[in-house]
Design brief:
alpha/beta; TIM Barrel; 2 domains; eight-stranded parallel beta barrel; 17 helices
Length: 417
């Protein structure tokens, strides 16, 4: 297996034009003495929506690394893959996010549950984990219940993992298992049992993406009890450290905060936990770059501003179709969406202020931002018109992409005050 570095940063790029600007944020971090390695991620759904192929992500990443002279590691993630979608990513990816959320709650075949309970008597009774104040008290019935909920998902992960190992023919890669896109968060005792089961499957797991308490919506900040999140996050770090020693998982196994996009309000608790424990972190910023492209187009004025307004007009006319696939991860008040006609009359500064994620700005409109986040397929349908303006407005867009990733994400997460 490849051994991923302590801090890694998942950056999506819907249209594969901002890899240099994204990498520039990691360059700035390195200049501050902090190594944050980029992981370019793009899912099968995103490729299908924009009509691209997995090889385009590798090509863009390699070109950016060459152009900026980046000498540290970097990765290309087959994001949210399943057995049905993994094949096309195999030649190009060295990071695989194995998404098994669909298997959670599915009934496993045969004696899988009873076999797991019998194999792990240590999970029944009092479990004291360093770093967690109160020991866990579990029963055989509880372990059986948890195994019944997660064993099939873990088996799915094992099957996909072994398929990747076989097809990559000795070529190393980083495996992540993602369980974040499900209805309820995993508790620390559940996470421990999941990690035990993943170890049983022989997965050389390097990052695990559980679901946390709260809402991780697309394009906007975390919504939830921050103190509760901080407790869960710290407890999960303790569980991972314990599971590494107990079950022989890779020593660099780390948490992945996978859901949502701009989780600003939980960055301080994450940073505190990382500094206190020395734990690594993988964080993903899905869709952030696409929104910065829209902001950069609007800020460029002229044809760029017109295009940004056209995209919004199409989005606000097709709210239902755009939002349906993302209903679980957006909260849009349609009464707070300005009409296309109103936005047509806005200046560049007005549109930028409405969609740039500065929560304290009075003009910021999280409902517009969420709608545009899920509206990237509109730009895809514009084809060459959109690509031509990405290239024509590259300087303005790149400035926004780099500043956003570095100042709003990397600094609070990895560098701190």
């Amino acid at each position: 297996m490849l051994t991923i570095e302590k801090y890694s940063f998942g950056v999506g790029d819907r249209f594969a034009h901002q890899a240099k600007a994204q990498l520039a944020s990691c360059v700035q971090a390195l200049e501050k003495g902090v190594e944050v390695v980029p992981v370019w991620n793009k899912s099968h759904r995103e490729h299908t929506t924009v009509g691209s192929e997995p090889g385009s992500v590798r090509q863009a990443a390699d070109a950016a690394v060459a152009a900026l002279g980046w000498r540290k590691s970097y990765y290309v993630d087959a994001d949210h893959i399943s057995m049905a979608s993994v094949e096309g990513f195999l030649p190009y990816s060295d990071f695989f996010t194995i998404d098994v959320a669909d298997g959670i709650g599915a009934t496993p075949e045969g004696s899988a549950v009873s076999d797991f309970v019998a194999k792990h008597p240590e999970l029944v009774g009092t479990i004291a984990i360093p770093g967690i104040e109160e020991p866990f008290e579990t029963s055989a019935a509880y372990v059986t219940e948890v195994a019944g909920k997660y064993i099939q998902a873990v088996r799915d992960a094992g099957r996909i993992y072994r398929h990747i190992v076989e097809k990559k023919v000795g070529t190393p890669f980083v495996p992540e298992v993602s369980m974040d896109e499900t209805d309820s968060p995993q508790t620390p005792p559940e996470l421990l049992m999941i990690l035990a089961a993943l170890a049983d499957e022989g997965i050389a797991l390097q990052t695990i993406a559980p679901k946390f308490t709260g809402r991780f919506n697309k394009g906007v900040d975390y919504v939830g009890d921050i103190a509760q999140f901080e407790k869960e996050f710290n407890d999960d770090l303790a569980v991972i450290a314990y599971a590494i020693g107990k079950y022989g998982l890779p020593a660099n196994l780390k948490l992945s905060v996978h859901s949502g996009s701009d989780k600003f309000s939980i960055y301080a608790p994450i940073h505190r936990a990382s500094k206190r424990t020395g734990a690594g972190l993988h964080l993903k910023t899905a869709g952030t770059t696409w929104l910065e492209e829209i902001i950069g187009l609007a800020e460029a004025d002229g044809d760029g501003l017109v295009l940004a307004k056209d995209i919004y007009a199409e989005a606000v006319s097709n709210v239902d179709a755009l939002c349906a696939p993302y209903a679980a991860v957006i909260d849009i008040d349609r009464g707070r969406l300005p009409s296309a006609e109103e936005v047509r009359g806005w200046s560049s500064a007005q549109l930028v202020a409405a969609i740039r994620h500065v929560p304290d700005c009075p003009e910021f409109n999280p409902h517009m931002r969420q709608l545009l986040h899920v509206g990237y397929k509109i730009a895809a349908k514009m084809e060459q018109r959109y690509i031509d303006l990405l290239q024509g407005c590259e300087e303005t867009i790149a400035k926004n992409v780099t500043l956003n990733l570095y100042e709003r994400h990397i600094v609070p997460l990895f560098i701190g005050e």
